[in-house]
Every structure is written in C-alpha cells, then in structure tokens.
Fold:
Amino acid sequence: MEFRQLEFFLAVAQGGSVTNAARNLHVAQPSLSQSLRRLEREVGATLFERVGRGMRITAAGEALLGPAKRIVREREDARAAVAAVAGLAGGRIKLASLPSLTVDPLPVMIGQFRAEYPLVRVTIAESQRVEEIVEQVEQGACDLGVASTPVHSGDVVVHEVGVQRLVLLVPSGYPASHGKVSLEEMATMPFVCGPVGGSSRTALEDAMVSAGLDLAIVVEAESTEAIVPLVVARNGVTLIPEGLAATAPRAGVEVRATEPEITRTTAFLHRPGMSSPPARAFVAMAAQLHP
Structure:
C-alpha cells in the first residue's frame, strides 16, 4: 500500500467523484482510477460504489477512512518534526473550530502565533458541532480542535483557555428590556438558533431547563452566518457569543445582556502524545495567553 494511494482515496471520499479528486489533486483521471483499483485489490474490498456520476463510499471504505487520515497526518507531523529542528521554519497546523470561535479568540491567537512562526501555514476547517470536532481530532484529520466544553471523549486531551459571555441579539426596536433580560422574559421570545448540539444553543437550553422554562425556537439555521441576518429580518432573537455580537451590523440589531449571565468555556483539543511541533507550540502560546 502506497502513501499516494491513500491520498487519492481520501480525495475521492472528500470530492465525491474521481473527476473532482483528479481536478483537486492536479493528476490525470485514468491514473487516479488505476491507483484506486490497485488499492482495492490490496485491501481485498470495494471502497466505493458508483452512483450516477459520483462515487459513494462503502462500509469497507468507511473503515479505511480513519486510518488513512491518521497516516496522512503522521507524514505531515514527520515533516514538521524535521522543520522543528530549524526552529519551526516551516510546517503546517490544521485546526477544526466552531464557526463562532474563528471570530473570537482564534484571530488574535493566530496573529500572535504567526508573528513568532511566520513560515508555519495555518489551516482552519469549521464544524458546527463539538462532536464533529472531537471526531476529526480522534481520527487525526486535524492537529487541534477549538471547541467549547463539556467534551465527551476519553480519547482527546482538553485544555481550557477561556470563558465567553453569551448575549442576546434582538431586532432594533424590539420590545425587550433595555437592561438585562431575564430568563422568564426570554421564555416569551421567538428564538433563531443554530443546529442541535451547537454550543450557544446548548448553553441556552441548559439555562432554560435549569430555570424550569420552555424555549420557543421558530427558526433553526444550520449555518452560523445565517443567524444574524435572520434576526435583522425580524424573525426572532438569538443568543450568541459577545465577540461575535461585536461584528454584527449596527443597523438592524441591538445587544442585550442576560440575567443570570450565560457563558461557555472554550478549549483546545488534541490527541494524547501530540507529535506535531507547530501544534505543540500553538497550545503552549494559548496557555500563556490564557493561564
């Protein structure tokens, strides 16, 4: 089994077809197809089924997915380890993050990291749910996860780095308290929320359940980017991190604090025995910023 075969396999799994994979990897399609057939012969199983013009991964392919991702990451870690000898003069770090954390605190952290290690390339992949980020870390698809606690996994190491306050975002002129908004008042409001399992939604649901109150969700948006425009369009109110609220358009929305204060704890996640020097350096820097 060759490393290039695994790269081709992962590209087809991600792109959904041989055509897309060949284009993304800048290789000839016949060469990629031939490499996949050799890989299937070596593992003794069919890895993809043709569906229309695309390819659907089989159960055997799913079983290979995690190990293949780990092998690719380990090769990149090996390259990074060599770069570490030269003081991290190169290498790459891949982060999987909740979308709201790419607004705060990641930009400042990445800025400080790149100021010290300007030749290290940083890649960010967004996931809506903590569980998805944990899975990517466990499978080796990324070096670090950036999420909120609690994290339900015994296979990742969790470094808490800060506490974020969540605030209520309401349409301009909305008949809500101009001071802090109580949970009882929030129980009368229509809410725009992210998907089930999203960190802000979970914090809101936990607060309402603890107070014995019901939450009226009128719009559920899979995309974080859609939530603020939905509030601006007066579909309801939402609870978002204070740092994200600061980036919301000033025309059309207003920010309200809650009583009691609702918060979430942010954390970095990584596999035990983290071998990537850039990832180790990034975690060490984050620990200094948030001791």
Summary: The longest strand covers residues 157-171. The chain is about 40% helix and 25% strand.
